[in-house]
Design brief:
The two termini are 23 Å apart. 30% of the residues are buried. The strands form two sheets. This protein has a seven-stranded antiparallel sheet, with helices on both faces. A five-stranded antiparallel sheet has the order 2-5-10-7-8. It is 47% helix and 22% strand. By secondary structure, it is an alpha+beta fold. Strand 7 and strand 8 form a beta hairpin. Helix 5 runs antiparallel to helix 6.
Amino acid sequence: MTASTVLSTDDLTPRDRAPQWREWVYRHFGGLDSDLYGDTDFDGHMASSRAGDVILTRLEANRHRVLRTPHMARGSETGYLKIVAPWQGSASVEQHSRQAGARSGGWVIYDTTGSYAIANPEHVEHLIVMLPKEQMVERGVKLDELMARQVGAARGISRVALDTMRSTWQELPNMSEDAARGAGELIMQLVRLSLLELAGQATAVTQREALKDRILTYVARNLRDPLLSIDRIAQALNCSKRHLHNAFADGDETLASTILRQRLDACIRDLRHDAQDARAITDIALSWGFNNLSHFSRVFREHTGVSPSEYRTASQMRRAVH
């Protein structure tokens, strides 16, 4: 189960609610000024959880505005791309001399490493999603022209991205850390595809990336199956093996090496976890789809530099020390 941080003005005196809310907003979002349109009465609630490197926050509050000055942006240690996706109410984002608004069914993206302003002129319920900017930049997205742009989520990949962000937030309390991390990776990939589409890049690129997403989703769901193969994936996704290989052509890994690495990573996590100490290494390997134990031992050593038993012993010794 993933951890959650909950902040609420319910238990505060009316006089303390506004200043405490400003402090919470400043700390939680890494430096933001806020004001309440001059209102003296205020109610606000925030609940935040992580999906790997992605931070998701449900915010419900009376009308308010937030501002990130250039000085605040320079002082921030971590850069994020930030999405506001209203469930209720509206949000208007201003950045790079552009302004974009969203209501339920849409979302706006902006960059926390630059200055921006957000107006919430009515009672709102927002999903706010923060994605590490560095990871998005590494994936080749040209960001400046895409910030403070409204992403229509009525259909297409942006709708899939919005639905995934919302359903991930709702199901995070029921997810393991590994599952949450995978959900965060999926959100980043879907947002990237949405930005590529927004930028008007070639349809072939987005189609290839979408197919790669489908492949990775199928692999994740069937990783424990020893019969998982390229032939089976092609049959399940109703496409040719050539299309499967082409989906991975621009990356550092082939489809086969991706499956092998994910199985090894899963075995490594189990060997490192104290709750799995009583399980035999053979049982762990078989449970993650390896059906040739000598092959498992060989690729494990190539991947880690040690045998599975040596790796487990070293992990146990580190835990004992700490």
